């Protein structure tokens, strides 16, 4: 039900369940969202991409008889090479447990390409003739180079700005030497994601 988008987009746990539904809606019926709804969601996706915690989540207690009432403070997330993450969280950030905002970050990234293709703004569509002529169609040509503070940009432009930052961070993380084979496989999977 898209009525939830007419109010405020939920946070935390409920938003985590809404995003897969929203992803299906844009796949099946992208015209069903209003401009106002797409602006609200674009703003939230930008926030989820850029502002997820860089502290690990905590293990949820099982509630059993022997469960320890004291929980350790969560440590920082790390990079694939084991270094402590000092920049922002991405799908290539490592942790034992993840917070709600980190799960939202992962879900937002997983639907980012489709969202931008559907609602990124007509001014950002690349004509087929430009692609055939080899005109620069890189993301940098689509992102504003003016020094406007991100929070002052309209929602769609702000999302493009945050998506660009996120992708730059992924490139930096992809150049790190992973400690584990699985982390290297994750780097490859993110690196081969189809963006065009």
UniProtKB/TrEMBL annotation:
It comes from the Eukaryota. GO terms for cellular component: AP-5 adaptor complex. Pfam families: TPR_AP5Z1. Residues 177-196 are annotated as: Disordered. InterPro entries: AP5Z1, TPR_AP5Z1_N. Residues 2-145 form the AP-5 complex subunit zeta-1 N-terminal TPR domain. This is Adaptor related protein complex 5 zeta 1 subunit.
């Amino acid at each position: 039900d898209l009525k939830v988008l007419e109010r405020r987009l939920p946070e935390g746990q409920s938003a985590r369940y809404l995003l897969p539904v929203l992803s299906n809606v844009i796949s099946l019926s992208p015209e069903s969202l209003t401009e106002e709804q797409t602006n609200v969601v674009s703003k939230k996706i930008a926030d989820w991409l850029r502002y997820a915690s860089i502290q690990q989540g905590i293990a949820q207690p099982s509630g059993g008889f022997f469960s320890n009432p004291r929980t350790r403070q969560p440590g920082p997330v790390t990079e694939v090479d084991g270094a402590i993450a000092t920049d922002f969280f991405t799908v290539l950030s490592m942790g034992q447990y993840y917070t709600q905002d980190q799960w939202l970050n992962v879900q937002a990234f997983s639907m980012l390409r489709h969202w931008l293709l559907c609602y990124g703004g007509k001014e950002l569509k690349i004509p087929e003739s430009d692609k055939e002529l080899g005109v620069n169609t890189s993301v940098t040509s689509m992102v504003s180079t003016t020094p406007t503070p991100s929070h002052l940009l309209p929602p769609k432009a702000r999302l493009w700005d945050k998506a660009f930052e996120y992708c730059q961070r992924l490139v930096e993380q992809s150049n790190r030497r992973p400690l584990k084979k699985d982390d290297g496989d994750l780097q490859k999977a993110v690196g081969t994601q189809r963006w065009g």
